[in-house]
Amino acid sequence: MAKSDWNPVIEAQNDGLAIPVVGRWALSKYNLVGRYCQIFTTSMKRKWPNLVYIDLFSGSGYAKIKGSNQIVYGSPLIALSIPVPFTKYILCEKDEELADALKTRVGRDFGDKDITLFKGDANEIVDDIKNALPRFSRESGMLSFCFVDPYSLNLHFETIKKLGNLKMDFLILLALHMDANRNYKSYLEKENDKIDLFIADTGWRTAKVESNESFVRFLAEHFKKNMQELGYKVTGTFQQIRSDAKNLPLYYLAFFSKHNLGNTFWKEVQKYSNPQQSLDF
Fold first, then answer.
1. Which regions of 187-261 does DSSP assign to beta strands (E)?
2. For the whole model, what pTM was predicted?
3. How far is the C-alpha of 77 from the C-alpha of 60, rounded, in Å?
4. Residue 179: predicted pLDDT
5. Which of 22, 42, 172, 201 has its CA 20 to 30 A from that of 245?
């Protein structure tokens, strides 16, 4: 598959609405999610009548790069801008100000697209999100791509499980350094259920997790195992994204597909990324 000239890092102008500030490292994330959207729709458009993009932590649609005046499209607007669009977009954002900004931007700039936008916590309204998927049947199938980009480990695995019984690829940000590594000791406290929900296991504290770094690998392995039990083919690596200033590890981008072709697409997309350390499986 030849590389495309289309660039997912799309510049935007300040429109006076809410714009979160992100590190420059986020450009790597936007590049990868945009590339996967592109290869997904371009390759599948003649095979599936319904191609759906789901973004569970959408943000405002714009992002400002820290330390600069650069404003770029966030993941939902990148997905809306690909040359071969999805047939349906489902976006979700909990923060009211960000959700309102996103609603204005998609309505203003992408009014021709079929978009459903939810304001709320994806973990709490996942049933509503699932019900918003288009009607499909054996004769009129559906294939979906879900991007999951939480700021921390505030993702419940039950959310993934409810969506994962469909034909759906996932690209999930696992905040295993920027959250799990930094807050390791607090998560060991029994009254803290964040990890219980993240890996759907209330008995995880009995495992021998002796350090912050081993905690990171433990969570990655557990998450991988959970996905495999849903029928996902976990191959290769979790790609690590590091900070620009001090080159510190921040998070992993973990890709999951039930079909070998999805993993082939992901390997192709990774050719566009800068070499990073990774977590091998």
1. 237-242, 249-256
2. 0.93
3. 9
4. 82
5. 172
